[in-house]
Amino acid sequence: GFSSTFTGERRPKGDRIFEALGATDELSSAIGLAGEFGSEKGHSFVDQLHKIQCMLQDVGSNIATPLSSAREAHRKRTSFSEKPVLELEQWIDSYSEQLPPLRTFILPSGGRSSAALHFSRAVCRRAERCVVPLVQAGEADPNVAKYLNRLSDYLFVLARYAAMKEGKEEKIYIKPEP
């Protein structure tokens, strides 16, 4: 029931660090699936998704290096800068400019690419909820939580963009009659 962090520290498998690592791994897998669907449709954003999967490896490295037990060499090797956060914000702005304004709640829909991106967004939000307590405890870099926060926004905007590019209708929320 134990596993090791990057620093060599042994912790129970149920430790919140391993929960966050698992959620981040699931997120990378979900994004990989979305990328495969996007590739089938010839979307140009597939390269961005691959870059994000690589960045999630760096997110995992930072999470797996609890700052309470990390030596300076560990910290330097697994540091996480704000640069990827800023890149996501640029991508969000670029896709948002091309989309019609959102006037109602939409449901995860809009074709396979879009639905897979919406699913990835939900997994991303769970990963963020797992990472935030680590950041609050001083165990992970705050930029990791910022990255996941912006990534969920990126995935939402990208899901809408994929639906638009594929000519698929986004299903909207309709309040049921009482």
From TrEMBL:
InterPro entries: CblAdoTrfase-like, CblAdoTrfase-like_sf, PduO-typ. The keyword Ribosomal protein does not apply. Residues 1-162 form the Cobalamin adenosyltransferase-like domain. It comes from the Eukaryota. GO terms for molecular function: ATP binding; corrinoid adenosyltransferase activity. GO terms for biological process: cobalamin metabolic process. The keyword Acyltransferase does not apply. Gene3D superfamilies: Cobalamin adenosyltransferase-like. It catalyses: cob(I)alamin-[corrinoid adenosyltransferase] + ATP = apo-[corrinoid adenosyltransferase] + adenosylcob(III)alamin + triphosphate. Keywords: ATP-binding, Nucleotide-binding, Transferase. Converts cob(I)alamin to adenosylcobalamin (adenosylcob(III)alamin), a coenzyme for methylmalonyl-CoA mutase, therefore participates in the final step of the vitamin B12 conversion. Generates adenosylcobalamin (AdoCbl) and directly delivers the cofactor to MUT in a transfer that is stimulated by ATP-binding to MMAB and gated by MMAA. Belongs to the Cob(I)alamin adenosyltransferase family. This is Corrinoid adenosyltransferase MMAB.
